[in-house]
Amino acid sequence: MSNSSENNSAPQRHVLLVAKSAFAAAPYRQMQRLAELAATLPGVAGASFGFTEQGTPSLREALGALREASASDILILPLMLPIEPSFTAWLTKSLRRWQAEDGAQWPNVRIAQGLAESPLLAALMAGLVETAEVAAPVPPAEKLAPEGSLIPAQKRRVLVCQGGPCNAAGADLIWGHLRNQQDRQKLRTTGDGTMSCKSTCLGPCNLAPVIQVFPEGTYYGGVTEAAIDRIVAEHLLGGRVVDEFAYEPTGRKQTLRAAAPVKPSLAKS
């Protein structure tokens, strides 16, 4: 793996650093540096990183790479501050779902406590304050001519619900997979053009995770990474609603339908 460092003297544990997202080269270099540092810790055989939202590799891709490398013990170390109370719950549910979809033997996976719970955080903050350079003063604002904006030409919009039930069902992972696919497949300029954004509650909470695709306004429930791949290929690019995951407004309460079993490759999520 291009973002891992190995120490064969202690092969019992691989540390997987997890951040939310990264868009530019600098944060990737920071994560690489942190992975190299983690790989030197006692009892650590190697370290790598992944992202729960937009960024490569995604958390699922990073786990898939470790499985292919025959890692036997993986410790997920969240680097985010703050962490929502539901983080461990939805991450655990997602790990179980990925294991069920994959149908193969998985290594032992554990989730470490967040940074905010560490008793070492106060010492770290004290060191950062003590060694920080004097911050440069903020310059006064300059009067600038107003800038114009282009009206987006994209005809399609995808809203990813970020309401409580959807977050608890792993909506961040679905958002990240959609954004990564949007970048990989150049969806902004392919077909009718697609833009995506996070949304407040979209309504059908018991169908979480939920997304809505416009201009049709189609609701999709129980969305997984495999469902996103089909929605991209069939709906966003092909113009055909994916009935297997779609829910029409009927005026009556609906529950999630049992989806057909799928076994996508972890390394290609």
General description of the model:
This protein has 269 residues and is an alpha/beta fold. It has 2 domains: 110 residues, Rossmann fold, CATH 3.40.50.1400; 113 residues, Glutaredoxin, CATH 3.40.30.10. Helix content is 31%, strand content 17%. The chain has 7 helices and 10 strands. A 5-stranded mixed β-sheet has the order 1-3-2-4-5, with helices on both faces. Strands 7-6-8-9-10 form a 5-stranded mixed β-sheet, with helices on one face. The N terminus and C terminus are likely disordered. Keywords: Lyase, Metal-binding. This is (2Fe-2S) ferredoxin. It comes from Aminobacter niigataensis. Pfam families: 2Fe-2S_thioredx, CbiX.
Read across the widest sheet, the strand sequence of neighbours is 1-3-2-4-5
Which percent range fits the helix content? Answer: 25-40%
The chain-level structural class is alpha/beta
Low-confidence stretches: 1-10, 263-269
Largest sheet: 5 strands, mixed
Q: Shape from CA axes?
A: globular
User: CATH superfamily of the largest domain, please?
Assistant: Glutaredoxin
How are the secondary structure elements laid out?
Layout: E1 5-6, E2 14-19, H1 25-39, E3 46-51, H2 59-68, E4 73-78, H3 87-102, E5 108-111, H4 121-131, E6 156-161, H5 164-168, H6 171-184, E7 194-199, E8 211-214, E9 218-220, H7 225-236, E10 246-247
Parallel strand pairs: 2-3, 2-4, 4-5, 6-7
Antiparallel strand pairs: 1-3, 6-8, 8-9, 9-10
Helix pairs in contact: 6-7
Protein name: (2Fe-2S) ferredoxin
Pfam family, one: CbiX
Keywords: Lyase, Metal-binding
